[in-house]
Amino acid sequence: MADGNVKVLGAWPSPFVMRVRVALHLKSVDYDNIEENLLEAKSELLLKSNPLHKKVPVLIHGDKFVCESLIIVQYIDELWCSAPSILPSDPYDRAESRFWAAYFFPALRRVLLGPTEEDQKAAMAEVLEGVVLLEEAFKRLSKGKAFFGGDNVGYVDLAAGSLLAWIQVIEKFTETKLLSEDKTPSLVTWADCFSSHAAVKDVFPDTDKLADFGMKFRAEILKAAAATTTN
């Protein structure tokens, strides 16, 4: 284990923060979790540690600040290089993992935060098409094992698995199954394996609590957008 204090500046509803915390759990790295309230003003620590984007997560390692969740995950994997490895060793497999890790979130965000019903419906159609493509990607990347990373939770597992709680919230709000036995049976099984994994279950948010936060967060986003439009 590398020397130095390790802290995560994050917020429990954030899927991006969850990626970082699970990665640290996988590597058995002790860390302090510092909660940022996403519905209140940004803290001085957040503004100092991520002055460009002013967003969580931030990994604070000694006097170093590392930002952006997938960059942080790569930093963790390279610094604490003991097994299990999060990114594959093969260059092509690494490239494909990076591709799929960046694939899925934007459409999900538009389902929740799209300004109009038409925008949300268009985003939902994109998500439904996307999960079918992700099902096929899982079959190829997992090579018949439990996770995208094979026997162990890997890079794509962290990226996609961190969105599972929000997928459950969307299913609750829209009464539409995004992961289903008929269209995405492999992803249904994978989702159960991921959410129950020892490195995940303690940071996997409660769906009802997350749904309540999602309603408040959406209201704040729309309020801010309306204020910008009228100014």
UniProtKB/TrEMBL annotation:
<dbReference type="InterPro" id="IPR045074">
    <property type="entry name" value="GST_C_Tau"/>
</dbReference>
<feature type="domain" description="GST N-terminal">
    <location>
        <begin position="4"/>
        <end position="84"/>
    </location>
</feature>
<dbReference type="InterPro" id="IPR004046">
    <property type="entry name" value="GST_C"/>
</dbReference>
<dbReference type="InterPro" id="IPR045073">
    <property type="entry name" value="Omega/Tau-like"/>
</dbReference>
<keyword id="KW-0216">Detoxification</keyword>
<dbReference type="InterPro" id="IPR036282">
    <property type="entry name" value="Glutathione-S-Trfase_C_sf"/>
</dbReference>
<dbReference type="Pfam" id="PF02798">
    <property type="entry name" value="GST_N"/>
</dbReference>
<dbReference type="InterPro" id="IPR004045">
    <property type="entry name" value="Glutathione_S-Trfase_N"/>
</dbReference>
<keyword id="KW-0808">Transferase</keyword>
<feature type="domain" description="GST C-terminal">
    <location>
        <begin position="90"/>
        <end position="213"/>
    </location>
</feature>
<protein>
    <recommendedName>
        <fullName>glutathione transferase</fullName>
        <ecNumber>2.5.1.18</ecNumber>
    </recommendedName>
</protein>
<dbReference type="InterPro" id="IPR040079">
    <property type="entry name" value="Glutathione_S-Trfase"/>
</dbReference>
<dbReference type="InterPro" id="IPR036249">
    <property type="entry name" value="Thioredoxin-like_sf"/>
</dbReference>
<dbReference type="InterPro" id="IPR010987">
    <property type="entry name" value="Glutathione-S-Trfase_C-like"/>
</dbReference>
<comment type="similarity">
    <text>Belongs to the GST superfamily. Tau family.</text>
</comment>
<dbReference type="Pfam" id="PF00043">
    <property type="entry name" value="GST_C"/>
</dbReference>
